[in-house]
Design a protein that fits this description.
This is RNA polymerase sigma factor. The chain is mostly helical. It has ten helices and no strands.
Length: 212
């Protein structure tokens, strides 16, 4: 993985694996994300490094689930944290948690890239069949990862974002809606369409082996 720093020199992002016990204790004693952001606003690089270590993996996960390219996802993750550093003073813990704010930055970057890459029509409006939230959770738990990946490819970027945040990252509907800058009702509608499309895509792959 490439690295990043506030001066645009990349800082090493180390894996959580293989930490010594004293390092694990240090992690447990570290301050909250919101406290760290106050330090980042004061341009303290140590706090920025801690935030990167904690949250870069989730930024990369969400980006890759939308752009479907690990190299591009890495670029998005690096740029997202550059924006965290640059715009730290605009973060308001009374408005959103740090993770929600970070998800919004990552999503804005991914949607911007995919819009530049190809035209993506808006999701069609309409009534959403009752699929039930647990149906997709069971699908994600039970289906092979490769099958789910193929089914996700046929979703729109925003549908992939909704599935990734709610079902894969475990955000509440309210948190995911804030991250996507949507009202709760609009997010619920988007998520419903995404669930329906994902289930249909999986069924089509199982029945025919392709989307054709």
């Amino acid at each position: 993985m490439r690295h990043i720093s506030p001066s645009r020199d990349r800082l090493a992002l180390r894996s959580n694996d293989g930490r010594r016990p004293e390092q694990q204790v240090e992690m447990m004693e570290e301050p909250s994300d919101e406290a760290l952001m106050a330090e980042v606003s004061a341009r303290r690089q140590h706090a920025f490094r801690i935030l990167m270590r904690r949250h870069m993996p989730r930024a990369l996960r969400v980006a890759e689930r939308i752009v479907r390219d690990p190299v591009e996802a890495d670029d998005i993750g690096q740029e997202a944290f550059m924006r965290v550093w640059t715009h730290a003073a605009s973060f308001d813990p009374q408005v959103a948690k740090f993770t929600t704010w970070l998800y919004r930055i990552v999503l804005n970057l991914t949607f911007d890239r995919t819009r530049r890459r190809t035209f993506q029509p808006l999701d069609a409006a309409g009534d959403v069949p009752d699929t039930g939230p647990h149906a997709v959770e069971r699908l994600i738990a039970d289906e092979e990862f490769r099958l789910l990946n193929r089914a996700m490819l046929a979703l729109s970027d925003r549908q992939r974002g909704a599935i990734a945040l709610f079902h894969m990252e475990g955000l509440s509907g309210e948190e995911a809606a804030k991250a996507m800058n949507l009202s709760a009702k609009a997010f619920e509608s988007l998520l419903g369409r995404a669930r329906t499309a994902l289930k249909a895509n999986v069924q089509k792959i199982q029945d025919t082996g392709s989307y054709a």
